[in-house]
């Protein structure tokens, strides 16, 4: 099968590698333009582009595919590349661009999306983060036949994945990427055999997984401790949960909910010694376990406390 591919991050590159390894012809890869990255802000190709180059697959990087949008020349070039590729199907995984109707209609078998949630639970850009933040007990992968809506297409394959009590977005992302890669290979085989059975999404239980913003990083100590702890895991590795200690912004990478019957204002240090730091929250308390100073490495809180004198009654921002 001629399976063109559209994707950008590591989540997508895992699927591209599996499609190629399964013996499908990948005539074209669409991915986001190179972005500045690293301390030198050097233009860096996406993981999908780098893999495509390694595999010898042609790459197109239009800033938009809308023929009536801001970059019509790039969209026209993208259309010409897709038409020349003659794909039977376009596989889409975390591409980052909205696909207009002409793209959806171009491949013989349409466009198949690898979506990182059990639709319709989390539609949108950040389903893995939001599942952890919400405390979902399970998530999974949905292979979806794309339509003009936002993650509203018919479901083709679904598999569930438990969310562990200590899962971070990074850990869950890797498991779901591997699951999605396996499932898209199965979906392509089923599509080729004509045995896929589309199922309409339920009308109830729809939530929108908004893209994670850096402004969400700052910890709100008035929230319940379990909510903050979930956010710490949901924002690992990006953007990281942060708090203020003596005017310094510190990242919190790991925490544990404590059920202590101590009344104190949210953000107040209620227990501290050489080994622990416990902070009052809106409901319950949070033991800070792993932290990171600006420019430093992630360390256990005991090591951080050696150079950061804190006392009971101090208030963190």
From TrEMBL:
Species this protein is from: Scleromatobacter humisilvae
EC number: 2.1.2.9
Catalytic activity: L-methionyl-tRNA(fMet) + (6R)-10-formyltetrahydrofolate = N-formyl-L-methionyl-tRNA(fMet) + (6S)-5,6,7,8-tetrahydrofolate + H(+)
Claim: rRNA processing is one of the keywords in the record: no
GO molecular function, one term: methionyl-tRNA formyltransferase activity
Protein name: Methionyl-tRNA formyltransferase
Gene Ontology CC: one annotated term: cytosol
Assigned protein family: Belongs to the Fmt family.
Lineage of producing organism: Bacteria, Pseudomonadati, Pseudomonadota, Betaproteobacteria, Burkholderiales
Domain called Formyl transferase C-terminal: residue spans: 211-308
Function statement: Attaches a formyl group to the free amino group of methionyl-tRNA(fMet). The formyl group appears to play a dual role in the initiator identity of N-formylmethionyl-tRNA by promoting its recognition by IF2 and preventing the misappropriation of this tRNA by the elongation apparatus.
Pfam families recorded: Formyl_trans_C, Formyl_trans_N
UniProt binding sites for (6S)-5,6,7,8-tetrahydrofolate: 117-120
Keywords, ordered alphabetically: Protein biosynthesis, Transferase
Domain of life (superkingdom): Bacteria
Segments forming domain Formyl transferase N-terminal: 2-188
Cited InterPro entries: Fmt, Formyl_trans_C, Formyl_trans_C_sf, Formyl_transf_N, Formyl_transf_N_sf, Formyl_transferase-like_C_sf, GART_AS, Met-tRNA-FMT_C
Signal peptide stretch: none
């Amino acid at each position: 099968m001629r399976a063109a591919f559209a994707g950008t991050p590591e989540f997508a590159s895992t699927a591209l590698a599996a499609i190629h390894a399964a013996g499908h012809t990948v005539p074209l890869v669409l991915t986001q333009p190179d972005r500045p990255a690293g301390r030198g802000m050097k233009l860096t190709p996406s993981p999908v582009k780098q893999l495509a180059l390694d595999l010898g697959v042609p790459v197109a990087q239009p800033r938009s595919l809308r023929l009536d949008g801001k970059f019509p020349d790039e969209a026209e070039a993208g259309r010409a590349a897709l038409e020349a590729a003659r794909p039977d199907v376009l596989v889409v995984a975390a591409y980052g661009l909205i696909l207009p109707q002409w793209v959806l209609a171009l491949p013989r078998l349409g466009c198949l999306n690898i979506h990182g949630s059990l639709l319709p639970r989390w539609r949108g850009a950040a389903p893995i983060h939001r599942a952890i933040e919400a405390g979902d007990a399970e998530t999974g992968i949905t292979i979806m036949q794309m339509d003009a809506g936002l993650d509203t297409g018919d479901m083709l394959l679904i598999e569930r994945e438990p969310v562990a009590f200590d899962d971070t977005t990074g850990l869950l992302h890797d498991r779901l990427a591997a699951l999605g890669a396996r499932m898209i290979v199965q979906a392509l085989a089923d599509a080729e055999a004509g045995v896929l059975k589309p199922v309409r999404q339920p009308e109830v239980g729809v939530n929108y997984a908004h893209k994670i913003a850096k402004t969400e990083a700052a910890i709100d100590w008035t929230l319940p401790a379990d909510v903050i702890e979930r956010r710490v895991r949901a924002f690992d590795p990006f953007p990281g949960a942060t708090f203020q200690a003596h005017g310094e912004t510190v990242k919190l990478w790991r925490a544990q909910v404590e059920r202590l019957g101590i009344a104190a204002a949210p953000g107040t240090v209620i227990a501290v010694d050489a080994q622990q730091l416990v902070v009052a929250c809106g409901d319950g308390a949070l033991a800070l376990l792993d932290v990171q100073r600006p420019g430093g490495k992630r360390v256990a809180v005991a090591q951080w406390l050696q150079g950061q004198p804190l006392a009971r009654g101090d208030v963190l921002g």
